[in-house]
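Subject: two folds for Thursday's group meeting

Dear M.,

Sorry for the delay on this. The cluster queue was jammed most of the week, so I only got both jobs back this morning. I'm pasting them in the order they finished. Each block is the input sequence followed by the predicted structure tokens. Could you check whether the formatting survives your parser before we put anything on slides? The first protein is the one we discussed after the seminar.
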Amino acid sequence: MGDKMEENICRVKAEILDGQAVCRAVTRISFEIIERGGTENLCLVGLLSRGAVLAERIAAKISETEGRKIPLGTLDVTPFRDDEKRISADSSDIDFDVTGKRVVIVDDVIFTGRTARAAIDALLSRGRPEAIQLAVLIDRGHRELPIRADYIGKNLPTSRGEKVKVMVRETDGCDKVVISEAD
């Protein structure tokens, strides 16, 4: 793992967000979710893997602010993707009914919109939410589908030849967002 991490660091063009900036973005997204609809019937669903971590943080911030626990689940969109056909078991963990709820899907980066579309399909296979919204830490543009995020930590215009990497301390040992040349 150390060699791979060092290899990735060597190709880094720029650090976009440091740990404090990631924390501020998560806090801002949390407050925007509260301001745009309150917490009644609200639930969060994080996309595996880094979206799930960000969703946990957002849920904790909303719970801390509002004094109530927010239902939180994780969603595996792999079986619903149209661009990467893989046969795999669905490892989603949503232990509440999404029907009639305002569901905020949380992901780390939105790029083409294909993952968000797959997430919507995966969510609709579990029920009929009142509303589905999307929160992302980074919006890098280049949509292939007519999908936009409702809550954005940072807009980051990129070229298609660049790669945006979100790192979270729970899986990567630190919080930051970097941009590098694509492999």
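Second protein, same layout:
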Amino acid sequence: MGMRSFDDFFASHQQRLIRLCWLLTLDRDRSRELAQEAMTRAWTHWESIGDSDSDPVAWTNRVAVNLSSNERRRLGTRTRWRHLVSVPDSLPPPTEHADLAQALRRLPERQRQAVVLRYWGDLDLAGCAEAMEISVGSVKTHLSRALTSLAASTHLVLEDS
């Protein structure tokens, strides 16, 4: 197989990456910025990650998770406790996603990452571990704790297959 076209990759995965970033940040503007930055980095490294032996989806997922984590650390406590103050996100999520956003916002960062990558990023456990740069066992732990928290606090049901 030859080199994949970045344009084709971008066209087929841009919206998926924006959705993934929204679930990580729960902020539409930031999700677009993070997805754009991840895609820009993919474009700059396309010669190595666009190769048929590489997985550009996993690569961009990992970059998006890292960017989200770095930003959250940089913003510190203000972002971590933002949900306790009545300051709305730049654009509130659609009503049908409000329960989901509220439930995800309550999860610790690593648990949110695991749930988002597994259930909305459609990654298997190994893919989640790669994107989060942790072991499969740690992913299982984060997922288990997150699902327990979600089950206790909301009517959302996620099934692991």
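Two things I noticed about the second structure. Residues 6-25 form the longest helix (20 residues). The chain has a mean pLDDT of 80.

Cheers,
T.
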